[in-house]
Amino acid sequence: MAILFLSVYGLALANEAKLTNIIVTNTRDDLLVYLSVEGAFTEKIEDAVKRGVPATFSFFVNLYRSRGMWFDKEIADLTITHTIKYNSLKKEYAVTRSWDSNSPVIVQSFDVAKQLMTEIDSLNVIPLDRLEKGKQYQIQAKAKLSRVTLPYYLHYVLFFLSFWDFETDWYTIDFVY
User: Fold this and answer.
1) CATH code at 100?
2) pLDDT tens, 22-36?
3) Preceding amide of 127 cis, omega within 30
4) Domain total for the chain?
5) Residue range 122-164, pLDDT digits in tens
6) Is the dihedral of CA 85, 33, 168, 1 positive or negative?
7) How far apart are CA 51 and CA 108, in angstroms?
8) Could you list the residue range(s) of the whole structural domain that residue 64 is in?
């Protein structure tokens, strides 16, 4: 009985979405963040998207200046969205990323569309001239699948949508500029 419980518990943990590959770096002028989400596309989400239901992932990125005994000072608070829509007539996926000026990206492959949905590459958080050299800072990041709002009559047909929510934990990276 205990072995079965541990196996089921392990499977539940394996299906949780989480942020990975979080990198904080900079160019000559800007502070940048890279990150990706693992476990965001469950079978139910994939089925819904392939049926034409749009899905939106929201990414939250906050930058704080750590001040020891005082409350940390918020310097940047960003909300980024990625939306995927499938066009069954053209058999293509349109991925719109709010931070990417080249959006929407049109692709035929669902795997490529999933990669575009779950990755943020070189997100400009803040210009470096707004940071003080030698000071302690903290980046926090989180991802969430936004709820889908459908017309009332579709709730009976697509009742499974209530089971495809996900939200990652907050991930924190401390650094000195």
Assistant:
1) 2.60.40.10
2) 999 999 999 999 999
3) no
4) 1
5) 999 999 999 999 999 999 999 998 755 554 545 444 444 444 5
6) positive
7) 15
8) 2-176
